[in-house]
Structure formats: structure tokens, C-alpha cells
Automatic annotation (TrEMBL):
It comes from Gluconacetobacter diazotrophicus (strain ATCC 49037 / DSM 5601 / CCUG 37298 / CIP 103539 / LMG 7603 / PAl5). Residues 6-61 form the Helicase HerA central domain. InterPro entries: ATPase_Atu1862_pred (IPR014588), HerA-like (IPR008571), HerA_central (IPR002789), P-loop_NTPase (IPR027417). It comes from the Bacteria. The lineage of its organism: Bacteria, Pseudomonadati, Pseudomonadota, Alphaproteobacteria, Acetobacterales. This is Helicase HerA central domain-containing protein. PANTHER family: HELICASE MJ1565-RELATED.
Length: 489
């Protein structure tokens, strides 16, 4: 502590109450997280979501397993999240080099696996998320809505419901204003570093119970100093200085170095602007082929302290058309069971995907039954109410070929209408279409119908009684006219 003795942190209390760290770039936020991880590495299992690759050096000294998040699928990372808890291995999920959308999807899958593991494996885990505003943004950004919803849902689960499952969230952010409030509000311990923007200073002061006039003191904090408050730290706001660390970050900060003696200006021009010879322009050495990504599940199994854990047998590759058709029928049956739940139509796709993977594992179909794009296609067919036998018919295959160029979110609506038209059934009501789209808004359902008509895949007709019918362009199938305001069915 500033002007006093050492500041101790009650680790057991921290595991029950969670921690929020804020500090502008250069305030020492990552140094604080590294100090916390090093001091607790031998006491509790750790999982680190690392968007910049700063914490991979922990592996050399403390034995953390480093997972390259960009080299593995979401299904693999979800399985890794489960297995790291089963085997009690500390893990660094390195997301360096991936774009924001991929980082959010991969982090959500990994956190989802940790969250959904069986009750018998709910051992305490310190889950550190650096740059948390990337994974739980307060507002929509340049990433897709689906990636944002998945990541925000995983972060909310970590901070709101993780405690009962042994997950203790430690989140760090550069700006409180950019972090989703429902995620930040669940922390009971705070370490607030140097910050300059008024909105962030005011929020930090509010969280610490300080008066507004004291908020400007956050501008005066030196690098490595934080104001601490919480049951795991202290009962009153106290300034603390973060001690030294044993490992180093791979990202070096700016350093001033003297220039070497500069060559004459004419030499500089020749060095920089000399034309590239023709032979150098084309005779580039060929790059060796990149090695395949490591088997992440094998790494986790090898990393386990107990050598008696049995490895799961891999599913044989489906080769024949008959086998592929049988597998698809099983997928359709599983999805039909999921969609029988009244609320299933309004759940996000990533939640349905996780439920689907769990059921596939129960059925003995392995952890990687379908990837996300394949799952979306099968889900669209299941939402249309098509059974496994009909899905194999030539007529339905033709409908799926028409639907293939459509966006994922409207493909299910088209297939729903195509099924009704193929069977000569009444045209689906707005309520039925809204459910297939995953919304309660009838207006959004009607807008998607208009979009499909603009894409020249359907033609809508309204008769003199106000009943709507739809025809599929190409095959010429047409539904029976029905009331668009009818009940769902």
C-alpha cells in the first residue's frame, strides 16, 4: 500500500466475489494481471483469454497449456474448455492474430465449454479476460450481431452465473464506458488505475463509492498504482502499488534508443529508392507448407496430471452416400427434438448449436458432428418441419439448392414456405414465419417476406378476401391461400 505495508488479496474471497480492473493503456493493467496470475498459479487452476498473446510466457515457468485459438474450430475449443476442467489444466487461450469477429466466437466457444461441464468437475478456476471490452462491448460495433451475442452471453454467464460452477471472473478493460454494464456490475472487487476521460472517471468513482469531486484523482495515478476496494482487498478505497513479476510479456513497450550515425543523404536515397532488379522481383523463395494445426484435444489429454484418463475413440469417417444419408437423418431427428421446446425457436443459434453437440455426443456421434455452417443448413431444414425421409427426396433437394445463395437467417423462412408450397398446404402465417426467424416481431417477419420476393425466389399474392398465398419461382409450387394474421401453426 502507498505509505504502508504490503497489500494482501484473499484468494478464497476473490473466487467467490470476482474482480474488475480498469486502466488506460500504459497504466500497468496487464502487469497487474500477470502479478495476480503468478502469485496464484500454484494455488488455483487458471484460464486466460488473451487477445494479444501477452500471457503465453506463463507456460515456460508455470506449465500453462497455450492454445492457438485461431488454429482451431469452435467445436474444438468448446471441447477444450470442457476438458481443461476435467483434467484441471491451466490454459492460455491465445487469440493473437485473429480478427475481432473470430476472437469473439472462439472465446465464446471456449467459455461455453468451461461453463457447461458436468457438476462433478466444478473445481475452482480463476478465469482472467484481458481487454474485456472486446468480448463484452457496451454497444454494437463492426462485428456481426451473432458473434457479439455469443461473446456477450458467454461473458454474462461467467460473471453472473459462473460462481456456482466454480468460475471466478477477473476482467480487465481500458474503458469502463465501453464495457457492458451487466458484466461490470457483477464484480465486487475493484482495482482502478489511471484514466483520463470524464465518463470513465465518474463510473470508477461511483463503483468505489467515492464522491464525484474525488474522481479527478484517477488522472494523477502513476503507472503501476491502482485504487483498490472490495471484500478480497480492503473495505475502504486504498491506493496500492503492484509489485514485480517473474515472467515477461512478449509485447515490449516503447523505448527511446539513440540513432546510429546516419549515412549521407545521397546514400540514403540509393538504399531506399533503388529499383528492384528483375531477377529479385520474380525469383522469390517458395515458402514451405504450413504444418497442420496441433490436435488440441490430444494436448489437453497429455497435459492432465492423471495418466489413467482414457482417450475417447474417434468416429470413423463417413464415406458412402448411404452412411451420409443415415447420418443426416440422425441429425434431423436430434434437431427436431430440440425444436419441440416452445422457446427453442427464439434461442440464439450458438445456444442451439451447443445443445446439438451435447446431444450428438450422447448419441455417440463425437464432438465434431457438424461445423457451424453445416449446422445452419440442417437447422433451416428442421425449422421448416421436414422429416428425415422427405429431406432426401429430389424435390426437397431442389428447394435447398434454391435456398443455398440466401443469407443464413432467411434461409429457414424460404424453406418453411417451400415445404408448404410443395405439399399444397396453407401459406404460413406471420406468427409462424416470425418463429422461424427467431423473433416475436410480426413486422420483421413481413420484411423478410418482402426481401425474399426481392430476391426473385418467391411470389406473394393477396386475394379479394385478404388471404395470402406464395409461389416458389422455378418449380412452380404454390401454397393454399390463408389468413396472414392467423395463429401460429
Amino acid at each position: 500500500m502507498r505509505g504502508g505495508g504490503p497489500a494482501a488479496m484473499d484468494l478464497a474471497e476473490l473466487l467467490s466475489t470476482r474482480l474488475l480492473v480498469q486502466g488506460n493503456s500504459g497504466s500497468g493493467k496487464s502487469h497487474l494481471l500477470r502479478r495476480l496470475l503468478e502469485q496464484s498459479a500454484t494455488l488455483v487452476q487458471q484460464a486466460i483469454i488473451d487477445p494479444e498473446g501477452d500471457f503465453v510466457s506463463l507456460a515456460e515457468k508455470f506449465g500453462h497449456l497455450v492454445i492457438d485459438g485461431a488454429a482451431h474450430t469452435e467445436a474444438e475449443l468448446q471441447a477444450a474448455g470442457e476438458r481443461m476442467r476435467v483434467h484441471r489444466a491451466s490454459v492460455v487461450l491465445n487469440l493473437e492474430g485473429a480478427d475481432a469477429d473470430v476472437q469473439m466466437r472462439r472465446a465464446a466457444a471456449f467459455l461455453g465449454g468451461m461453463f457447461e461441464v458436468g457438476r462433478e468437475y466444478w473445481y475452482p478456476v480463476l478465469v482472467v479476460v484481458d481487454e474485456a471490452q472486446l468480448f463484452a462491448p457496451a454497444a454494437a460495433g463492426d462485428v456481426s450481431d451473432e458473434a457479439r451475442r455469443a461473446s456477450l452471453g458467454a461473458m454474462t454467464n461467467l460473471m453472473c452465473r459462473g460462481r456456482k460452477r466454480g468460475l471466478a471472473g477477473v476482467i480487465a478493460t481500458q474503458r469502463l464506458a465501453k464495457l457492458a454494464k451487466n458484466v461490470a456490475a457483477e464484480a465486487s472487487n475493484f482495482l482502478m488505475g489511471r484514466t483520463f476521460l470524464d465518463i470513465d472517471m465518474m463510473r470508477a468513482a461511483d463503483l468505489l463509492g467515492m464522491e464525484r469531486r474525488q474522481a479527478e484523482s484517477f488522472r494523477d495515478l502513476e503507472r503501476g498504482y491502482f485504487v483498490a476496494l472490495g471484500p478480497a482487498l480492503c473495505r475502504r478505497p486504498v491506493a496500492v502499488r503492484i509489485g514485480p513479476v517473474e515472467t515477461e510479456s512478449r509485447s515490449a513497450g516503447p523505448a527511446l534508443l539513440p540513432f546510429a550515425p546516419a549515412p549521407p543523404p545521397e546514400d540514403i536515397r540509393d538504399l531506399i529508392l533503388t529499383k528492384l532488379p528483375e531477377r529479385e522481383a520474380f525469383a522469390r523463395p517458395s515458402r514451405p507448407a504450413a504444418p497442420p494445426p496441433p490436435d488440441i484435444l490430444a494436448q489437453l489429454a497429455a497435459h492432465a496430471a492423471s495418466a489413467a484418463v482414457e482417450a475417447e475413440a474417434e468416429e470413423p469417417v463417413v464415406e458412402t452416400p448411404a452412411d451420409r444419408a443415415a447420418q443426416r437423418r440422425r441429425f434431423t431427428t436430434i434437431l427436431a427434438e430440440i425444436l419441440r421446446d416452445e422457446d427453442a425457436g427464439f434461442r440464439p443459434v450458438h445456444v442451439l448449436y451447443q445443445d446439438f453437440l451435447v446431444r450428438c455426443r450422447i448419441e455417440g456421434m463425437g464432438r465434431q458432428a457438424l461445423d457451424m455452417p453445416q449446422f445452419r443448413r440442417v437447422l433451416a431444414t428442421a425449422r421448416a418441419g421436414i422429416d428425415a425421409e422427405t429431406a432426401e427426396t429430389e424435390a426437397w433437394q431442389a428447394a435447398e439448392r434454391i435456398a443455398a445463395p440466401l443469407p443464413d437467417d432467411v434461409r429457414g423462412i424460404f424453406l418453411l414456405i417451400a415445404r408448404a408450397a410443395m405439399e399444397g398446404a396453407p401459406c404460413p402465417s406471420d406468427a409462424t414465419i416470425a418463429r422461424a426467424y427467431g423473433t416475436h416481431s410480426l413486422g420483421r417477419a413481413r420484411r423478410q417476406l418482402a426481401y425474399l420476393e426481392e430476391q426473385n425466389v418467391i411470389v406473394l399474392r393477396i386475394d379479394g378476401m385478404g388471404r395470402r398465398s406464395a409461389a416458389i419461382i422455378g418449380p412452380g409450387w404454390e401454397t393454399v391461400p390463408s389468413d396472414p394474421n392467423g395463429v401460429e401453426g
